[in-house]
Specification:
With 250 residues, the chain is an alpha/beta fold. It has a single domain, classed as NAD(P)-binding Rossmann-like Domain (Rossmann fold). It contains 8 helices and 7 strands. Strands 3-2-1-4-5-6-7 form a 7-stranded parallel sheet, with helices on both faces. It is globular and about 50 Å long. The structure holds NADPH dihydro-nicotinamide-adenine-dinucleotide phosphate (NDP) and 2-hydroxyethylsulfonic acid. The site of 2-hydroxyethylsulfonic acid has 5 residues, from loops.
Length: 250
């Protein structure tokens, strides 16, 4: 990873934050993205390496393209794009769920990921190399009660990844996705709109993955030889069998 340029969306928290630290240790140059500028600045200080900070909302198509355009020329040749930004909003049946929550998930997790990909691709195509790693989820492999739209958004990430790999196959650009199970981050706090007690319960007795464990797996995907593509990596806490079968400690 030495001197490779790695762009991470959703770097201000959780998996993105840990991935930034992991890739910084491996010697990468980092483009760190998220909406919270103060968190981006704190992360840049923390990793202490060569960084560029881009504060934008992935749902804002114009802002996405302007952010990529604003990079200095020697930072535009991105080697690895890690499409990590995303969240769940709410956990409700379709009949009572909020349409605003649905829009936040579809616009961010799906359309936002597509915009960032589209904005980064021209440089990779010109360089005839590059790698795109998307954050899917076990929720995109199986649907669970009250998760229909979040699960749909992650199923879309799975299928977009597969289609992208087909389209970019002649161009030598590697494409894969990682699909974690439960990872203890700010994810459930965001899902439950700041209800920390409810968020904590999600991870009780499950020995959830840490963001660092997921970051190590992402680093593995990026460090295999260029002739190898890790196309689809599902990573679960051992106590989790699938999206809804969990062996929780009493
Ligand atoms: P966090 O809530 O800790 O982090 C989410 C990150 O995404 C933040 O940095 C946030 O930054 C960014 N983000 C969210 N919405 C937007 C937006 N509209 N524009 C720009 N950035 C955005 O959650 P995780 O680290 O757990 O989640 C990271 C990814 O991993 C997500 O795609 C999630 O779906 C996926 N995932 C998580 C699992 C888990 O159990 N935690 C399991 C499987 C997958 P900011 O608010 O500063 O914009
Ligand atoms: C996050 C994992 O099971 O909370 O994608 O939806 S889950």
């Amino acid at each position: 990873m030495k001197n490779k340029i790695v762009l991470i969306t959703g770097a201000t928290s959780g998996i993105g934050w840990a991935t930034a630290q992991t890739f910084a240790k491996a010697g990468a140059r980092l483009i760190l993205c998220g909406r919270r500028t103060e968190k981006l600045e704190a992360l840049a200080k923390d990793v202490g390496t060569n960084t560029q900070l881009l504060a934008f909302d992935v749902r804002d198509k114009v802002a996405v393209f302007e952010a990529m355009e604003s990079l200095p020329p020697d930072w535009k040749k991105i080697d690895v794009l890690i499409n990590n930004a995303g969240n769940a909003h709410g956990l409700d049946p379709v009949q009572t769920a909020s349409i605003e929550d649905w829009e936040a998930m579809i616009d961010g997790n799906v359309k936002g990921l597509m915009y960032v990909t589209k904005a980064v691709l021209p440089q990779m195509i010109a360089a005839k190399k590059g790698q795109i790693i998307n954050l899917g989820s076990i929720a995109g492999k199986e649907v669970y009660p009250n998760g229909s739209v979040y699960c749909s958004s992650k199923a879309a990430v799975d299928f977009f990844t597969r289609g992208l790999r087909i389209d970019l196959n002649p161009l030598g650009i590697r494409v894969g996705a990682i699909h974690p199970g439960l990872v203890e981050t700010e994810f459930s706090e965001v899902r439950f709109k700041g209800d920390q007690d409810r968020a904590k319960k999600v991870y009780e007795g499950i020995e959830a993955l840490t963001a660092e464990e997921v970051a190590d797996a992402i680093r593995y995907m990026a460090e295999v030889p260029e002739k190898v593509t890790i196309a689809d990596l599902v990573i679960l806490p051992t106590r989790q069998a699938n999206a809804y079968v969990n062996n929780r400690k009493a």
